[in-house]
Amino acid sequence: MRMPAPIRLRELIRTIRTARTQAEEREMIQKECAAIRSSFREEDNTYRCRNVAKLLYMHMLGYPAHFGQLECLKLIASQKFTDKRIGYLGAMLLLDERQDVHLLMTNCIKNDLNHSTQYVQGLALCTLGCMGSSEMCRDLAGEVEKLLKTSNSYLRKKAALCAVHVIRKVPELMEMFLPATKNLLNEKNHGVLHTSVVLLTEMCERSPDMLAHFRKNEKLVPQLVRILKNLIMSGYSPEHDVSGISDPFLQVRILRLLRILGRNDDDSSEAMNDILAQVATNTETSKNVGNAILYETVLTIMDIKSESGLRVLAINILGRFLLNNDKNIRYVALTSLLKTVQTDHNAVQRHRSTIVDCLKDLDVSIKRRAMELSFALVNGNNIRGMMKELLYFLDSCEPEFKADCASGIFLAAEKYAPSKRWHIDTIMRVLTTAGSYVRDDAVPNLIQLITNSVEMHAYTVQRLYKAILGDYSQQPLVQVAAWCIGEYGDLLISGQCEEEEPIQVTEDEVLDILESVLISNMSTSVTRGYALTAIMKLSTRFTCTVNRIKKVVSIYGSSIDVELQQRAVEYNALFKKYDHMRSALLERMPVMEKVTTNGPTEIVQTNGETEPAPLETKPPPSGPQPTSQANDLLDLLGGNDITPVIPTAPTSKPASAGGELLDLLGDINLTGAPAAAPAPASVPQISQPPFLLDGLSSQPLFNDIATGIPSITAYSKNGLKIEFTFERSHTNPSVTVITIQASNSTELDMTDFVFQAAVPKTFQLQLLSPSSSVVPAFNTGTITQVIKVLNPQKQQLRMRIKLTYNHKGSAMQDLAEVNNFPPQSWQ
């Protein structure tokens, strides 16, 4: 007895759509799946096509349909076109190369590729191009290559896309398709042209040899220029017209291929300059289609070696995009301008006002891009205007922007400040507006700036005093204010401020403020420490309130905060036992010198101009050098086994007191100690081993290199990658020469890059000067630096590294340990 005919696909869809609940829909699906399984078991050829079609619909709804895989293969083997069509569709949806079942259809696809009907051949090409595995591609690549040479445009376009899939799966078969590509671009059919450009793009991206071949031998650029010119100059063509533009999809594909061909190639770039200018000026921008073509044109102009006038035209197009009502277009424009601002700074500057207006956009992603671009545009000429806009933005922006914006303002102000008063006012404004969001180093940096601005001390302490009256919410601001009041409290009560109207403050009023900070619930432990120290300092600045200060200090000798208690106990001891030393110990801080971290030259930046200023060289000391506080800091690095770095300077210059590379856990200035100070008898002396100072720093490394030592990746994070390569000398096998290579895969350069290192005391280490301080974006270049390590005991090498650099307007810093040195580098 035969089963009744199964329902049609249309009826199944209608039935499922009537389901009111998910459970009801599941019940319908399970019932129909059971009927389909029964039909499959009975080998019912009449309704197999209908059942597989229903199964594919259920698969699209998310229900399991794997039991129909073999039925798809049976339909593919059928001679009826309707069966083949559903069978191939099922294979593309239900099969992939992870299942061995797909290999069973290889022979069927091969037969259908040689079928007499073009539509059957097209089905086979589509399936192979969609889910063909590497084994299938190897077996069937010959048939695809034949169809690529056929005169039938319907098959050629499908064969070209199938060839793309074959190349992705089996790149070594690329050369097989090279002869077939010669005549593809002479085709009139736009479908063939489009797929041909996709195939050529794939070949150029995957093989540098193919790219060079198409540039030189095939003269591909002139052909593409001719096709693109015909597209933009041709009249209305209804079959290819999209919003008044002739085949924009083909134009975009050609522009992308031109970008690949013109990159780092002068001749190819020269050949396409004119057509890119024509596309940029003749494309209609009222519709999104035209904007898409213009955006691809801009990317191509920026990526090839184009003329300066063409680059300005591209940036002007992006400037017009910023005025577009579409948020996506504005975001794309800002992102593109951010990538080009380093190379075409002046051209981007012309659109500064439009970019600043984007800071007021309601879309947060546009806001962030506009903020990053605004910081990139700051220079010595526009610093005042740009800071005014960015400070206004800092006032009104969302909390998630405040930290990055504050960091960017600090960096820009430090680099381009027109005067010290402006610099101090700007940073105080940031602390007042977004003090709780600033980085940890903002407080010491501002304190250093204030200390070095001797003529601004009275003005600064008065401004800070007024800023914290009754408001202790911004803790960094309160910390700076407390420090300044402690240092310059005498200037505050003297009322001798020339920059603005002085205020009359008594000693008791100043102490009232500091005591309020001590007892405020908003004050952190660090802030209370600043306040207590400030009160103690005022005991030498004030004359009438010393007894009150003693009383406050003694109260905190029993504080539950251990840090505060320790400070108070020590200050009490100063009052009671060492009062004769108090005025000397609490005298004003001297001017702080900012030490450069890379070489003996400090970069002084004024209004956008950079001038090297040689640092003052002190006379060499007559005796051996003290280690100063270096060993104390080394203990923080994980034991007392870290060796200082041997400086590369000749012996006629003073030796570094421990070396700035020792300071891997902070920015403490170890090199600023006076070199001529006599060393106490209990402090061990550092003698400079001669092997590193025998002229190696000025000569080639070695002529007898021992090769074969594998390189390692010492650090890879946030787009920054540090690789170590090793060399050993036969004449002195205890010396290992490590060459570091720093690369940057992000879209923006990393500037002010400094690499520092420390090794255990059983080793001796010397860092030579780096090749640059800028790590170029997109892995377009590297920084190299040489490290020499003496390992006389042949112990396993360990190293701790510190990386500092500026990226996207923020100062970055990171520590890492390197313990995976290959044995050949130290044994």
UniProtKB/TrEMBL annotation:
Location in the cell: Cytoplasm, Perinuclear region; Cytoplasmic vesicle, Clathrin-coated vesicle membrane; Golgi apparatus; Membrane, Coated pit
Listed Pfam families: Adaptin_N, Alpha_adaptinC2
Keyword field contains Protein transport: yes
SMART domains, per database record: Alpha_adaptinC2 (SM00809)
Domain GAE: 707-822
Chief subcellular location: cytoplasm
One of the GO BP terms on file: vesicle-mediated transport
Membrane topology summary: Peripheral membrane protein
Region called Disordered, residue ranges: 602-632
Record key words, sorted: Coated pit, Cytoplasm, Cytoplasmic vesicle, Golgi apparatus, Membrane, Protein transport, Transport
PROSITE patterns membership: GAE (PS50180)
GO cellular component, one term: trans-Golgi network
Family classification: Belongs to the adaptor complexes large subunit family.
Function: Subunit of clathrin-associated adaptor protein complex 1 that plays a role in protein sorting in the late-Golgi/trans-Golgi network (TGN) and/or endosomes. The AP complexes mediate both the recruitment of clathrin to membranes and the recognition of sorting signals within the cytosolic tails of transmembrane cargo molecules.
Name this protein carries in UniProt: AP-1 complex subunit gamma
Gene: AP1G1
